[in-house]
Write a structure and sequence with these properties.
Length: 130
C-alpha cells in the first residue's frame, strides 16, 4: 500500500513539473508585452499663482505608452479628490484652503495600468514655489 501511495505521489509530481515546464518563458514574454505598471512622471513642482490655487507641473517619461495623468490630492487623511488631466504637463487646482495638501501623481498607460505614485506635499501660498 505504501508503494502505491509513493508511486502516485511521484507520478503526480512528475506530471506537475512537465505541465509547468514552459510557463516561465511564457510569463516573461507576457511581461515584456504587458508591463504591470506605467512609468511615473518626473520633475514634479508646484507654484501658487494666487491665493487658493496651486499649479502643478511635471515631465513625462520617455515612452509612448502613457495615456493620461491622474492627480489625487488630500487635505486630510480622510478626504481626497481625484482629477484625470489627460496628456497635459501642468494642471491648476483652485478653491484650495491655506493648508498643506498631499498630492499623488500617477500616470495611466494604454493598458490601464497606473504608475507608482509620486507623492508631494504643498501649501498654496501665493508666489511661493514648492
Amino acid at each position: 500500500m505504501k508503494k502505491v501511495i509513493y508511486f502516485i505521489l511521484c507520478s503526480f509530481t512528475v506530471l506537475i513539473n512537465i505541465s509547468c515546464e514552459g510557463m516561465d518563458e511564457n510569463y516573461k514574454d507576457y511581461r515584456d508585452e504587458h508591463p504591470t505598471y506605467s512609468p511615473a512622471v518626473t520633475e514634479v513642482n508646484a507654484i501658487s499663482p494666487e491665493a487658493g490655487s496651486l499649479t502643478l507641473t511635471w515631465t513625462f517619461p520617455k515612452t509612448d505608452r502613457i495615456k493620461s495623468v491622474e492627480i489625487v490630492y488630500k487635505e486630510s487623511s480622510t478626504k481626497s479628490e481625484s482629477v484625470e488631466v489627460g496628456m497635459k504637463t501642468e494642471y491648476t487646482l483652485s478653491g484650495l484652503l491655506l493648508q498643506s495638501y498631499t498630492f499623488e501623481i500617477y500616470t495611466i498607460d494604454i493598458y490601464g495600468n497606473r504608475s507608482i505614485p509620486i507623492i508631494k506635499n504643498y501649501t498654496p501660498i501665493p508666489g511661493r514655489e514648492g
